[in-house]
Amino acid sequence: MGTFIGIEYSTWWFLIVGALFSGYAILDGFDLGAGAWHLFLKKEESRRIALNAIGPVWDGNEVWLVIGGGALFAGFPVVYANMFSAMYIPFMLFLAALIFRAVAIEFRSKEEMAWWRTMWDVSYSVSSILLALLLGIVLGNILIGIPLDENKQFTGHWLSFLNPYAIMVGVTTLAAFMMHGAIYLGLKTKGKLYAQIYQFLKRAIIFFVVSFIIVTVYTLIYIPHLTDKIQNNRWMFVIPVIAFLAIANIPRLATKKKFLQAFLFSSLTLAMLLVIVALELYPTIIYNTADPAHHITVSNAASSSKSLKIMLIMAAIGIPLIATYTYFVYKTFWGKVELDEHSY
Amino acid sequence: MDVEILARIQFAFTVAFHYIYPPLSIGLGLVMVFMEGQYLRTKDKTYEVLAKFWTKIFALTFGIGVATGIVMEFEFGTNWATYSRFVGDIFGSALAAEGIFAFALESGFLGVLLFGWNRVSSRVHFISTVGVWLGSMFSAIWIVVANSWQQTPAGYQIVGEGVNARAEVTDFWAMVFNPSSVERILHVWIGAFLAGAFLIISVHAYYLLKGRHVELSKKAIKIALGIALISSLAQLVTGHASAEVVAEHQPAKLAAMEGHFEENAPADLYLFGWVDKEAKEVTGLAIPGGTSFLTHQDFNEPIRGLDSFPQDEIPTQINAVFQFYHIMIAIGMGLIGLTILAAFYWWKGTLFDQKWLLKILVISVLLPQIANQVGWFTAEMGRQPWVVYGLLKTSNALSEVVTANQVLFSLILFFVIYALLFTLFIYLLNKKIKHGPDESPLKDQRPRQREVSNAFSN
């Protein structure tokens, strides 16, 4: 395996995949969260504004998932193949929800009838909630580990993805996205709707903090492989400390109505939580609960050194380009939502 | 039913459904680039009205294309785990390149294309349209590169064995420019141009027949017909080039396409026919030695027939491959005839008076769609029993841990969702077409004309 600045290509790729999924969590996180709140908004105009707040960006956000999935496939084909086939049912439900959501956003505005709009509102909101839950459930299974045989093939029951820990992580993910989404909506709205969103945000923060504490306590007590590295390396404490400070800052900034800063801190929260996950798992990617001596790791799952090198070059060229387009789009649509004839 | 056949049906169904949309997006994108370019050049508002109208239909096809495309990406991992491990080192880099270079460009600019009309200048908007279109073109490059590598693998070595065997890249550019890449990318692109151009021709021919949006529709048809004429002729060239690659690198596929069984005899070129696999003969109308002539420029040159291959290394559905291939050829020829005829009347200045031709153009939208579908069915079924030609069989490429019941569940799920999606797509497409372009920006000049005519009639 080749190295770059003393770090193996496979580790670089682990970092890139991690960065892509963090980017995905931050970006699609706010629009899934906004979707989860959708049915709590009662007025047609409020719903339209909320939908148009994510209108120009949700599709670009979803691309991070496509790129993240592609990067996982490219860098760690064994993880991609074995994890996706092990989690068959949740991934199929995920795809179904993803389609319903995209279609709901596109089709809702195409007819005036109340039943039509209600149908797509329900479809949009329920699928947003389901997507957040399923993402969290898959993450939860990665955290707790799955049973594998000597060929690294899944040996568990097809329903075992629905274990209590994974469900807790799912709920926490939903809560984090709802908080993140409410902050985003606060940035994009004004007047009465803004006041209503502010009430949502207060509830979302409580929902997130409670579910986060439950997951953290459970993890500390029952899942040593997710806590021992930070416990054994004192300097790493800095990361959970940053995460806790970021979380604590969100209600403080929200009460001061500083939504942009609050958004940055909720983004930082999501990123730091994923950094903790990556740090604790590395060099394992999929923890084998059947045989703790044979995990799927960064080294035994990676593509060839040559392939990783090619893709690192691509990433070095491509990621600044992506950052530029993203900046351009957000700049074009910066500020409060104004509905016009091109809106949803 | 066993897992293999269910997984194949699911993949074929989801990919065939997906493939209705990206070609439309690529083709519509090209025409929209021309429309906006014309607007910037001539400042004729008609072109902007056209571009805005087609952007709305583009949004519909693009949205469904993205949603159904993610399904394809995930299915590699969920249903074809052994395949994913085998090709990951190679296929992965193509998919990653698609994501990084194509999707990001496409989706980045899409927001501006759809919602930015009032927020950016018409020049920046034009650049965004070009960006989205180029993104969709790049996307096609990488996907076809990955598929072409499965047809004609190059630039790799095999490492490991059994379920853990995999192909590793040894030469990236040899992998990208494998023997069939270039011909197939061009063939796919042009097929997409035809799909988009014919949708535009069809809709505007319908308006002309109804006497609606007349001036607008004439301009739109001229742009789209120009593209369709060049594309249908060019498709003959890229099609022939692709067939030559098949003849050289995938002889069993070529033999199945023409129903050629004899081990070492000149191969006929069928215009149409029916293959009897048991009797090993084709009933139909053929040019004797025609396929030999097209491949070797000699009617008597022998070509390897299906009998010369091990019988577990040839496609099982020979008649299907034969029929799909011949439908594609027939449609391709039909499109050439149709576009030349339309261009002839355009040159004579009477195209828009030929009601019968406009009626044919309205229904012709289906032809490139069918040709694109059956073309892919020929390529993929003709490659069987291999998923990676000569290296990995489809039956060995599955996920070991996924059961038939799970696949049946997801197959039914996709079937229901896609049936709903297609119904909605047709309903909304029809509605948008019935509603038509919003010509109000053009009316700024009209009250004056009306005043003038009123003055005369008084």
The protein's oligomeric status is heterodimer
Helix-strand makeup class of chain A = mainly alpha
* Class inferred from helices and paired strands of chain B: mainly alpha
* Total of DSSP H or I helical runs spanning 4+ residues of chain B: 15
% residues in beta strands of chain B: 5-15%
Distance between the termini of chain B: 80 Å
Tally of discrete structural domains of chain A: 1
What global shape of chain B is seen? Answer: globular
How far apart are the first and last residues' alpha carbons of chain A, in Å? 50 Å
Helix content bin of chain A: over 70%
How are the strands ordered across the major sheet of chain A?
Answer: 1-2
Report on the biggest sheet of chain B.
2 strands, antiparallel
Q: What is the topology, as strand order, of the major beta sheet of chain B?
A: 1-2
What is the number of strand segments of chain B? 8
Spans of chain B of 5+ residues with little confidence (pLDDT < 50)?
Answer: 446-458
How many individual β-strands of chain A? 4
Membrane topology (chain B): Multi-pass membrane protein
InterPro entries (chain B): Cyt-d_ubiquinol_oxidase_su_1 (IPR002585)
Family (chain B): Belongs to the cytochrome ubiquinol oxidase subunit 1 family.
GO molecular function, one term (chain B): electron transfer activity
